[in-house]
Structure prediction request, 139 residues.
Amino acid sequence: MDPILVTRKLAALRDHLDRIRRRRPARPEELRADLDLQDAIAMSLLVAVQTALDLALHFVAEEGVGVPASYAEAFTILEQKGFVPAEVAERLRRMAALRNRIAHGYASVDFARIWTELPEGLQAFEDFGRALDRRISPP
Prediction:
């Protein structure tokens, strides 16, 4: 695997997670009422999820541990091979599904639900990033 590529992608992932955290309003009603804020959060979330998926697919390919049939399956393979814990993989699969809702059905995206799911999803990305950091910089 390419540690420089992984490090750059992890930096991009963390940048978008920070953007989402800064923008997430205190209450879901605030997000529901602000279309520009919805767009900003949706875009950063889309980029964050896609970056995590790119990293997952990179690790799966580089380690030769399987060929995922879907984005979510890339996280399943990483879980099965011990790269990430089961609970992190499950949260990442849910974030991949959220990415699909944003990318393919923007009008049907429930921003109150996104507001609720964000803390757990962002933590999953942080956990994923730490797991990948350990893979590219062993003790």
Residues 3-136 form a domain with the Four Helix Bundle (Hemerythrin (Met), subunit A) fold (CATH 1.20.120.580). The chain has six helices and no strands. The chain has a mean pLDDT of 91.
